[in-house]
TrEMBL record, chains A, B:
Residues 50-69 bind DNA. The lineage of its organism: Bacteria, Pseudomonadati, Pseudomonadota, Alphaproteobacteria, Sphingomonadales. The keyword Transcription applies. InterPro entries: DNA-bd_HTH_TetR-type_CS (IPR023772), Homeodomain-like_sf (IPR009057), HTH-type_TetR-like_transc_reg (IPR050109), HTH_TetR (IPR001647), KstR2_TetR_C (IPR041490), Tet_transcr_reg_TetR-rel_C_sf (IPR036271). Keywords: DNA-binding, Transcription, Transcription regulation. PROSITE patterns: HTH_TETR_1, HTH_TETR_2. Pfam families: TetR_C_24, TetR_N. The keyword DNA-binding applies. Residues 27-87 form the HTH tetR-type domain. It comes from the Bacteria. Coiled coil: none annotated. This is TetR/AcrR family transcriptional regulator.
Amino acid sequence: MTKSSAAAKNPAGYESSLREIKPGVVAYKRARILAEASALFYEKGYESATLEMLADRLSATKPFLYTYFKGKSAILSAICEAGVKESLAALDRIEEIERRPIDKLKASLREVAEIIVARHEYLVIYQREMMNLDRADAQRILRLRHEFDLRIGKLIDDCVQDGAVTVANAAGMSIWIGGLLSWIIHCYRPGSKRSAEMVVDQAVAACLRLIAVD
Amino acid sequence: MTKSSAAAKNPAGYESSLREIKPGVVAYKRARILAEASALFYEKGYESATLEMLADRLSATKPFLYTYFKGKSAILSAICEAGVKESLAALDRIEEIERRPIDKLKASLREVAEIIVARHEYLVIYQREMMNLDRADAQRILRLRHEFDLRIGKLIDDCVQDGAVTVANAAGMSIWIGGLLSWIIHCYRPGSKRSAEMVVDQAVAACLRLIAVD
């Protein structure tokens, strides 16, 4: 039975699968816009970049952009929050997969380091253009980053409870781990001498040294 | 004998003491301009800030600014290079004072952390406005930062030779130490909850943990 014949026999099912496809299409188009906007902001800086330039790069129109984002500032906000949102999602995923606290921590550090490498451009833009964010967006992203620190602190704490590491101040150390991970964007850019794998390995090793794990 | 009577009796000496005073005055005025420019760029962003605004804040004129700097871009460059130049000068100073490699390293980390706290605003501007630097300035500052990494790597290496620490890759580790120190600007701002002393202590402790020194 083909999909369309199934749909004909079950119009309600067809409707619901359309609803299922739609968010995927929206997500895809938003992602395409963000990728192109990120390249544009990275190259020209946020203030010099215009929505016309962005529409041109996408062979689209400004109204097309407005279907997906309220404006240039909403695009910047989505770029700036991508890294931390993906990192939090990775922590959720790993929470389900790994059992031992130390394995959770190690897997989390590695996945977040990989996200930072993959989102290099987005994170450089966040660092550069932070002050161009709307105040509410800037605060929302800071809260997400704070949540990330808390969750890493909790992971370290669980390792301490488990006897796997000894750290006097897990919450304090999580902030410096955040610093090491963020430093990846200064150590790696696509095409740089050091490979992504090498930088991820070094960053994870450095984080683990901070909490005295080999 | 007053200074002026000494000068009258010794015109050559007077001349030379004037020459000695002059650089101090120039340095003072340049520092005043940089401090005010830094506050202005920090508040408004480099692109929105103008030399007129800066002159106003200093109750001075644009020609006064041009006596000390070639233009807005030269002021940005001086702000961006201040932190790393002062850090390199601190390493030179400590090289002369301390004898044991591990003491040199510890003193260096602490002094550099203190410079970063003191230069918070300058370093935030460097991070934000990097792409507005003239290409040659940007490269010069990167070379200075690279020199800093090399010198920290050398200090770690000396500690390894001395048997004080065990690090497989001193040069590699110096880059992550640079990352931890740079992270200070995200952990501390004047008036923030954590005190400058606490952040400096934590940063130095984290750096030493990286090379397994308690």
